[in-house]
Structure formats: structure tokens, C-alpha cells
Specification:
Shape: elongated
Number of strands: 0
Largest sheet: none
Length: about 45
């Protein structure tokens, strides 16, 4: 099997998790502010 055409799915999953962790932390820390901002934007006319 040619190594250039194989995929290391374990490494891909690990990198995806490492990329998502900061995004999830940001969302959970600022969740209330983000939801309040979206809710009040709909009220401004």
C-alpha cells in the first residue's frame, strides 16, 4: 500500500479535537453574552 494515499484517521481526529477545544471553551464562557446579544438584536427595529 502506498503511504502517500493512506490516511491516518487517528491523527485527523486528534487534530480536529484540538482545534475544537478552544472554540468550545470560548462558547461556554461567553454563552450568556452571545445569546443575549442575538436575542436583543432581533428587538431593535
Amino acid at each position: 500500500m502506498d503511504l502517500a494515499t493512506t490516511s491516518d484517521y487517528g491523527a485527523q481526529v486528534a487534530m480536529a479535537v484540538l482545534v475544537l477545544i478552544p472554540v468550545m471553551i470560548f462558547f461556554f464562557v461567553f454563552q450568556r453574552d452571545l445569546i443575549d446579544g442575538v436575542a436583543t438584536q432581533g428587538l431593535k427595529g
